[in-house]
Amino acid sequence: MRTYQIILFLALITLLSCNKDTVYETIPNYPTIAATFTNSIDVANLENYANQNIPPYITKDNGTINPISDKGATLGRVLFYDTNLSSNNSIACASCHKQANAFGDNVIVSVGVNGTTGRHSMRLVNARFSNESKFFWDERAASLEIQTTMPIKDHGEMGFSGTNGDLSFNDLIFKLNNIDYYKELFTFVYGSDEITETKIQNSLAQFIRSIQSFDSKYDAGRALVNNDNQPFPNFSQQENLGKNLFLTPPQFDGTGSRIGGGVGCAGCHRAPEFDIDPNSLNNGIIGTVNNIGIDITNTRAPSLRDLVKQDGTLNTTLMHTGTISSLQAAIGHYNIINLATGNTNLDPKLQPGGNGQQLNMTGAEMSALQAFLVTLAGSSIYTDSKWSNPFE
C-alpha cells in the first residue's frame, strides 16, 4: 500500500510540474509589450476577437482561409494603429479608417505621406461578412490579406513603394525588426520574432475582419422574426415600409419607368449582411476625385451597415468619389439613372430594357427608405476598446 502511495504522490508531483511549465511556456514574460501597451494589451487576458457573437442569420464569411485568433488580431490592432508603418512616421492605417467613423474617413480624400489618396477611403465595418473576397473599389486586390499592405507600398499613401525615391517594403521590415515590441509580438503570435509580409498581412486582415457591428435596431428586429420579409415588431410603420421598398424588386415598363414593386436596393446590397453582390457592376458614379476623365471600374462597395450613426448623421461621405454627402442625395442618385456617355460598365439592373432606371419614388417612399437605412446603425463599433488605439 505504501509503495502505491509513493508512486501516486510522485506522479501527482510530476503532473503538477508539467502543468506549471506549460503555463509558463504559454504566457512568457513580454516586458516591452507590457510597458508600451500598459492600459490596452494584457497578453495573459486578451480581448475577444475570435469568438464574438455572430447572429445565426449571418452566413457570409470571406475569411475562412485566415481564421481570426485573439493573438493574431491583437498584433493586427497594433499594426493598424502604428504610424511606424509609414515612411515618415506620420500615417497609420487608422489615419484613413477611423473608429469614430465606422472605420471610414470623414473627408473626401485622405492625406498620405506624399499627397492624397486617389479615391475616398472605404469603410471597413463588417468587411468579413460578404461573399465578395476582393477589395478596393475597383477590386484590384484579390483578397483582404493582399489589400492590407498595398497602401503601405503606395508612394502617395504610406510611402514604402521602392519607387520615386521611396524606401522599399524590405526597409519597413528592417525598421520593424528594430522595434522591441514587434519582436515580442511576433514571437507571441507566431512563435518566432521573424517578421514577414505574409505575417503582417494575416494579422492585419484578422483585426479588420474582427470589426463587426450587429447591435442595430435592424438586428433587434430580425431576431424576432423568421425572415427579412416579415414586418419587424420593433419597427415603425415607416421603417417597415422602407424595408419592403429596399427588399422588393421594382417592376418597369418598356421605358425603364417603375410601375410597381419596390426599389430593389437588395439586388446589389443583399440583406441581412447588406454586402455587395460580387457580380455588381458600376453604379452610375463615374467621376474622379480630381475631376480628370472618368472612372468606370468601381464595382465594389462596403456593407451598408453603419452608413450613419444612430442619430442619422453620416459617418463618411459616400461613393468612391466621396461627393455624395447625405442619404437623401444617395437615394436621389438611384431614383433617376442617366446613361452617361462612356460608361460601358453600368450594372444591367440599373438599365432595364436598355434605359436608365426611373424609380419615380415619392417623397414618402424616399423618407421611408432613409428611415430604414438608419436602422442599420450600431453603437458598440464606435466605443469598443478591442478596436481602439492601443497606443493611447
Write a concise synopsis of the structure shown.
By secondary structure, the chain is mostly helical.
Helix content: 25-40%
**What top-tier CATH class of the largest domain fits best?**
Mainly Alpha
SS summary, helix count: 12
The major pleated sheet works out as:
2 strands, antiparallel
What share of the residues does DSSP label as strand, in percent?
under 5%
CATH superfamily of the largest domain: Cytochrome c-like domain
Shape descriptor reads globular
Low-confidence stretches: 1-25
Reading side by side through the largest sheet, how are the strands ordered? 1-2
Fill in the CATH topology of the largest domain. Cytochrome Bc1 Complex, Chain D, domain 2
* Through-space gap between termini: 62 Å
Number of domains: 2
- Whole-number average pLDDT? 93
Structural class: mainly alpha
CA radius of gyration is 25 Å
Per DSSP E runs of 2 or more residues, the count of β-strands stands at 6
